[in-house]
Amino acid sequence: MKIGIVGAGMVGSAAAFSLVMRGVASRIVLVDLDDARARAEAEDIAHAIPFASPARIEAGGYGDLAGASIVILACGVGQKPGETRLQLLARNAEVFRVVVGEVRSASPDAILLVASNPVDIMTQVTLSISGLPAGRVIGSGTILDTARFRWLLSRHLGIAPKSVHGYVLGEHGDSEVLCWSGARAGTVPADSAAEQVGRPITNEVRQEIDDGVRRAAYRIIEGKGATWYGIGAGLSRIAAAIGGDEGAILTVSTVSDVLGVSDVACSLPRVVGANGVTQELLPDLSPAEAEGLEASAAMLKDQVGTLSL
Ligand code: ADP
User: Fold this and answer.
1) Which of 34, 92, 99, 140 to mutate to test the pocket of ligand 1 (most atoms within 8 A of CB)?
2) Class at the top of the CATH hierarchy for domain 142-306
3) ipTM of the modeled complex
4) Where are the domains of the chain?
5) pLDDT in tens, 34-53
6) Ligand 1, pocket residues at CB < 6 Å
7) Are 56 and 33 in contact (CB under 8 A)?
8) Which of 56, 51, 71 is nearest to 25 (CA)?
9) What CATH number has the domain spanning 2-139?
């Protein structure tokens, strides 16, 4: 499978590296305004190929995205001093207007995988510019927050993260909702599993895990300036689900109606395969979780309303 990546910064490059190490792509093309950066990243990552599956990775222009099954959008501009979040958003929306246009003409059949932040809003912007069906414009959304939740819960329980399930829904950001009511170890509700292994989920444990998920990005940014490995792995997980037509359930962002909020991009558990997102599965939520999810969706909808789409 050929995969294009626009934006060979930390996130785009980490995604490319993860795609190579997982053997998801046979060909990867990195496109960046900074061509020297794209070429250097491609060469560096290419040196990992002898330790992974056969693949080709190179830097290129938009024309080289022809025939790509997926194009990951990880490009964007950083916040200028004194700039508000909404001004930054407007500038990034302008970048996307150009980039998405170029990508659509070069590879009209590609599924677009949006990684740039604020990811839910950029997903909605991309859908609007691209004119694609909603299921073919997928934001990485809370795939990473869900991974953080499963990892922290698995550490507490002493059970492998692959056997621990729990979703983070809504915005990829401060208003996201950790769905404790549906958390499971195997098929056993997390609270019961925790009692059985002698590590009850007290209010304090719950608070610590909630904070560990919600504040993770802030802590990492404080220490190293940005986050990239986790999201890079999440992007390659989504690409693998598309490439393998897996029908995997992943918490990703697409535009749909979320509880009482119409036409908004935020994360729900969704079925991902060769045609992108084909189904969404709203889990049973506690009243507080449902309220939190609706508030998160409403907040995103308000923010999108400030942009002229
Ligand atoms: P992140 O940590 O999100 O990856 P970076 O700043 O490291 O952020 O990467 C963003 C990348 O996007 C940079 O390499 C930048 O050159 C690239 N970029 C910005 N605008 C465009 C654009 N219009 N087209 C292609 N690439 C772009």
Assistant:
1) 34
2) alpha beta
3) 0.96
4) 2-139, 142-306
5) 999 999 999 999 999 999 99
6) 6-12, 32-34, 37, 74-78, 95, 98-99, 226, 228
7) no
8) 56
9) 3.40.50.720
